[in-house]
Amino acid sequence: MSETTTALPDDVQRLIGVPQYEEVGEFPVERGYIWTSCSSVENGNPLFWDDAVAEELTHGHIAPPTMLSVWFRRHRWAPGRTGETLALQVHFDLKERFGLPEAVITENTMVFYEPVRVGDVLRTHQILRSVSEEKRTKLGVGRFWVIDVKCFNQHGDHVGTDIYTGFGYRRD
Amino acid sequence: MSDYKRLLLSDVAVGDTLPTLTYDVTATTVVLGALASRDWRPMHHDYDFAVRRNGLRNIFLNTPNQAAWFERYVTDWTGPTGRLGRMQFRMRDSVYPGDTMHFDGTVESVEQDETGCGWVQLAVALTVDGQTKTSCNVRVALPTSPDDNPWDRRGDRWRP
């Protein structure tokens, strides 16, 4: 990987650290989806299947931590909806802003705080943390960016952050 | 107290390996995983789209479902008192129907933080035919004694 240019436009610089795309989940966290997710990977953790274990350890039913992003994915269709908000919209904004036709997520880190509980209605926002100088990789020439997706419950407790490193590029 | 597996911090040492999990992936695995994570994108359920439009071999496992697989793998080992703090993963290649996934993990560190919380750092790999498809680093809290419960930690006492 090598650097090719240095400048970061002012309009992009101004977005760094600024919360964008605040959004509220379309439905409360529910056990049906928790069971479907556990079933899909044959996860028999009694925390999600056994009421007594859930009560003893977490004082009620919680969701698997890695389901964090699931609670923000919109229905495939909903009545009266117009337009489309893409998950990780900041990623697609940067791709367009820099005129980079291709983009991939190269790394994903999830940090888990207060457990997500059945009945919670979560909200989220996205924060651009950094944009690199132009770099050349085996994929092509482009920029790396880091985006935090911070998630909270209805009480304002921080439940988790998804940190994505994206690379927008054009092929050589 | 309910009867379940309860791995303690003192049961773990650097260099320990986790039992291998092996799983044969089918189209149903991929589609179920995508829909369970509310991922409606066609490359995870539409063979023609994946092959003709994206130029791939088949539909493939999506990212959130891979995270769910890693969580299942780690908590199979810890039992329900294991509490995930942080998971970092990097995908190198896709997992397709017909692949046999192998999950393997190694303990990289064992420590207690300033608040007394017990932490284990794991390096986990998802491989197919010996090739790493996804590598994953996991920080998971374990009880430091039979009476300790990492799920009780809140605020400044939880530092993932």
What can you tell me about this protein's structure?
- The complex is a heterodimer of chains A (172) and B (160).
- Chain A is α+β, with helices and mostly antiparallel strands and 172 residues long.
- Chain A has one domain (2-170): Thiol Ester Dehydrase, Chain A (Roll).
- Chain A contains five helices and seven strands; from the N terminus they run βαβααααβββββ.
- In chain A, strands 1, 2, 3, 4, 5, 6 and 7 form a seven-stranded antiparallel sheet that branches.
- In chain A, β6 and β7 (158-170) form a beta hairpin.
- The longest helix of chain A is centred in the N-terminal third of the chain and has 10 residues, at 31-40.
- Chain A is elongated, with a radius of gyration of 19 Å.
- With 160 residues, chain B is of the alpha+beta class.
- Chain B has one domain (9-25, 62-157): Hotdog Thioesterase (Thiol Ester Dehydrase, Chain A, Roll).
- Helices cover 21% and strands 31% of the residues of chain B.
- A five-stranded antiparallel sheet of chain B has the order 1-3-4-5-2, covered by helices on one side.
- In chain B, a hairpin with a 2-residue loop joins β4 (118-128) and β5.
- Chain B is elongated, with a radius of gyration of 18 Å.
- Chain B starts with 20 loop residues before the first strand and ends in an 18-residue tail after the last strand.
- The relative contact order of chain B is 0.22.
- β3 (102-112) of chain A pairs antiparallel with β2 (83-91) of chain B, so a sheet runs across the interface.
